[in-house]
Every structure is written in C-alpha cells, then in structure tokens.
Amino acid sequence: MAEVSRNVPPQLSRMSTTSYFPTIPRGVPKAAISYSQSVNEAPYTALMGVIVDGRYPERHAVTPRCRVRKQVGGTNRWRLPDSLGSDLLGSRQAIKSINMPYNSNMINIITAENPQSSLHLEADKPYVFHQVVDRPVTVSQVPSTASSKLGLGLLSRESTVLVRAPSRLRGPTPSTSGPIRKFVPANARPATPKDIFLYHSKKSQSFIGPGYLGPLSKYDVVLKCLGMDWELHRPYLQKSEVLSQLLKQAGEPHMQKYYRNPASETLDTYIKKNNVYSNEYKDISNRLSMVEGDDEGPKKLDHPAHTSEKRISSVTMIKLDIKDPLITKTAMAVALGNLYHDELDVDLEDVANVLAASSQIGYKALQNGCARLMLNNISYKTVCRYHHACTKYQQEEVVKACERWLELNLLPELSNQIYLREISMELLQKILKSNRLYVPNEYTVYRTLSYWLFLQLNSSIQLMPSHSTVLSYFNSLPKTGSFLERDDGQIYGPLFSAVRLQGVTDTNQIRDMQLMNILPQSQLIDLLTQHYHALQGGGDMSALKHFNTGAIRQGFIIDDEPHYHSEVLSIHGFHFELKAARNAIGQLSIYMQRLKPGDPILSFRQCESHTFSIRTDREVRYCIMVQDSGDDLKTTGIVSQKFGLGEKVGKSEILQLDKIRTPLYISFSLLFPAS
C-alpha cells in the first residue's frame, strides 16, 4: 500500500483527503400495497396455505388508521392475510368472502380517494366527493327554457359532458360551476313497453323500427291496444291470425290525425278530463295538438306542424280490445316484437304473460315457443302461474306437466314456500285426491292445508309463517265452533276431507290439531276412537274399507347416489322398516320388513314409550310405488300378505330397479284389514 502511495501525485493525494464522496444511496423501497388492494386480496393470500420459504404474503402496513374499518367482503376476519393453516372456520369464511359479490362498504373502500374517508359513513347518506376545481364537473347543456317545460310536466333528457379545469389551478378554492348534477344513465331506468318493442323490431333490417319519428312506409299499421299506439308493419302481421284478419276488415290505408308526441297527448288528456277548462278551450287545445297527415300546400309559420315532425302520413288503423289481466303492456310489447324475428326471445319472468298475449293475437309459433320454455322451467316459483295461464289458453301439455310436478313436490317443496298461496282451491283438491300424490306422512297433508288456509285468510303476509304463528292464529279465533263449521269456513270442508286422519298417531300432532280448532271436534273424537279400537283389536282398521282412499301413506326421497336408506313406520303396535338398499351389481332393492321389539334400528324412545304387539301374524295390505320426475312409475300393486316376527316371514315383496334416475319418490301405503 505504501508503494502505491508513493506513485500517486501529491495533488491527487491532497484532493483525496479533502474531497467529499457521497455514500451510495439505498435502494428505492418497494411501493406499499394500497389499503383497498390489501383488503381485496386478503382472503386469497390467506387461502394460499403455509409459505414454503417461511415468508408471509405482502400486505399493507399495519397502522391504527388502516385497522379501522367496518367490513371486508362477506366476513369480518380478513384484516391481515395470515396463512390459515388448520383453521377450518377461517377457511370457510374466506371461501364465502371470495364467492360473495362486493357490498356497499367494499365498494366504498376500493373506489374512495382515501380509505379512511370511506369508513364509518352514515348509512342513510350517499358518499359525497370533495368539491375541488380540478375534479370533473357535470355541466348541463339543456337550454334555460327547460325549466318552463318542467312546469308543464314535460321531462326531457339532459346531455352532459365532463369538463376539467386547468391543471394550474390546484388550490382548494370552491368551484364556480355550482353543485354537481345527479346524472342517471339511460340504461338505469326501467325499460318501458316502447323500449322493449323497439329492441325486438330492430332485429329486422327490412323496415325501420317503431321508434322512428319520421314518415313511415305507406303500408304501416297502427294498432290501438291497452291504451297505447303500436306502430307495426303489414308484412310481419301475417304471422298473427287475429291481426291479419283485422287488417283485411280495415281496408286500405287512409289519412289519420296523430299527436305529435306523447307529452302533447298527456297534456290534452289532462285538459279534457279537467272541469276547469271550457269546451271551447278544449277544442282549441285538441286542434293544436294534432297534425294533419296531408302535408300538401303552404302553412303559416305559427302552424303547429312546424314545431315538430309529423309521425305518420297514411296508415291503417286497427283496434283490439283486451280485458285479460294476464296481458300486460310489457307482454304485448314482447309478443308484437317477436313478430319481427323468427327466433324466440322471451324472458322467463314474462313467459306466462307473453303466452296470454300471443294467444290473444293468434301467434301460434310464439305460443308453442312459450309452451316449450315453460316445460323446461317448472319450479315452485312458476308452477302455479304456468298452470293458470296454460289452463286458460289450452296448453294441455304444460298443464299436465304442472300437475305432475305438483303430485311429486306439493308436500315436500311447495308447502314450505310462500308461493303456496298461488295455488287455487280446485287445483289443490285435485292434486290431493290423486293416486300418484307423494306423501312423506299423513300429517304433512294436514299441515300443508292449514298453511294454505292461513295464507288465504292473511293475504298481506309476504314471508312463509312459522308453525307457531299458524297455530296461534287459529287458536285465537272464537271458540264457538271449529273453523270448518263457520259460515266462511264451510267451503274448505272438501279440502280437509282429503286428509287421512287415521294415519296421524303422534300425540303432539293430534294436540296441535286440537289447538288449531280447524276440524270439528266430532272428527277428532272419531279419530281417537278408531285408534283405541285398533289397539284393542290387534291393529284391525275395521272402519276403512277402500284401500285407495284409506291406506296410510309414508315415503322418502332419494336425490343422490343411493346406497342405503331406512325409515320406520309405526302404527297400532306394529313397526315396519321401510328400506331402500343397493346391492353389489348396482340394483336398488326397495321393500319393507316387520321389526321385533328391541330391534337395533328402533330408537330408545320408540322402545320405551311405544306399544308393541307380539302377534305372530298380521295380515297387511300394502303397495310400494316408485316414481321419478318424469312419467316412469313402478309399483308392486296392492298385495295382501301376513307378516310374522321371523326374518323370512317378516319381509314384503322386493321391488327391484335396474336403472336409477334421481330423484326417486318412494311411497309405501298399508292397511290392516279386519282379521
């Protein structure tokens, strides 16, 4: 080192000792993750599991400000994205927060200028941006005369532009442009029937759409229906039997008078109905609001034709009177709009109303399309509405499909939904008397009827009531007699006659029936008498003569891959196991077997409190029926057999199924004849 120093010139040696050399600057720190991004990605990073190199995922700096928030996603656990490990509850909540859409709090956090400003806001007030001049402001380009139009109730669309102030203005000075106007996009408002009609008609490029305000083709047709003027085109109306017939009767087009715009029509209608204005003024207003179709000859400058373009020149006017409440303006717009294209374009929400509208105008292709759409979308939400519309307009295939769906799902599904109120009494009675009705147990029939009756008497209820609510309501009625014995309750008597009361043996269920006081006391006394005689007579049901109307029903549904399913049916001291089991070759075996006292499948309560008969042979008439969601039905028929306590003599006939198509509705019906 000394040799190197000797070779350095003295000027450089002196400079090295006196000069300043700055230290190498540190690396620029990585930009911290924004708070909103950290909140958004926290569930994903938490679900990544244990990191291999031991480092935790990158996250926003932990400060008191960042830890203040109301909610993240669908849960409140994802403040910090630590690995979950074996936290099963945390994993479940993380998955839930990922699958759920953003709520209002999350949107405020992500879109806010400052995360802190989006927290703890008042729930009933919207977020207000800071009013600074460098923020885009909304400036209206509507003339000042718009205010006078608003006074007459004539609303016009406002076009808006975004204007940014010069970038040199950076101070927090108040903006001189006034408060920001609330702008609602056109697609945010509900679609009107005219909008729906225009959407469908635009699919055809042969003719201009009905929203066009200029002169239309000379073959144009105006349909007056449901209080609206529908502008149609003659070639497309040939698809409709009713409209084409009306065209033939109407003859050739001729000149018509029309309102220049809907606002003029609204104002003129108001003047006509108001008694304040004189008849002379009404005539003047009507004349000024209308435009002659003939545009030949000069007009003065004050002629109303100069203020707006004429809508039509020469048209054929037809009129269709409709008084069906199923046919709405929206449904008519969809039905008429489908005349302009061949493919079916109908929303599921409106398909029943569109079917009614298409039937009214005689559009067979649309009727068949709506029927096919209904067949593929029957559910507890739509079955009653579809059945009502298709019954009225002779769509027998859909009617049968709805009734078939109700036979299988009335008691297990529809009875638990508020849509139960929509089923009519005639249809409900027809389904309950069907031999193919799936019944989980006899008490569900009574329970469904009591819920349906409650919904009919309380039409303002919007949610399905609880059992205690229904029980309390009927128990609060006057005790002068049962509900079915009152004048307003006698019409419901045939419905409750479909309940096979002899199958209700549980004491708690019988007590609820007594508290509701719907059925006459004589029927309940007769029920208890039959139970007593059956217990004393070895199970004989001497009062029941016909199997199809008196057999006790119980069943279950197999809606997944079946391997084994078992239930217990207890009646008058005899206990049967209702079983469905799959064997080694994939066949499903369905049968019932009599149980011995103390059998392991019986619960402790059943063994302790239920009556057991040790009768060695009990003649039973039974029927096992298996149905799927289609029309497939397999049954043993009505079989008479003596059941003993032994394994070989205590098993019924076995029903084998090779092909299984879930869900399967399995029903057991049995009756003890007099011995």
Automatic annotation (TrEMBL):
Taxonomy, superkingdom: Eukaryota
Cross-referenced InterPro entries: BACK (IPR011705), BTB_BTBDG (IPR056426), BTBD16 (IPR042833), BTBD16_C (IPR048859), SKP1/BTB/POZ_sf (IPR011333)
BACK domain sequence ranges: 384-458
UniProt-listed Gene3D superfamilies: Potassium Channel Kv1.1, Chain A
Domain BTB/POZ: 552-653
Domain BTBDG BTB/POZ: 303-374
Name recorded for this polypeptide: BTB/POZ domain-containing protein 16
Species whose genome carries this gene: Mytilus edulis (Blue mussel)
Source species taxonomy: Eukaryota, Metazoa, Spiralia, Lophotrochozoa, Mollusca
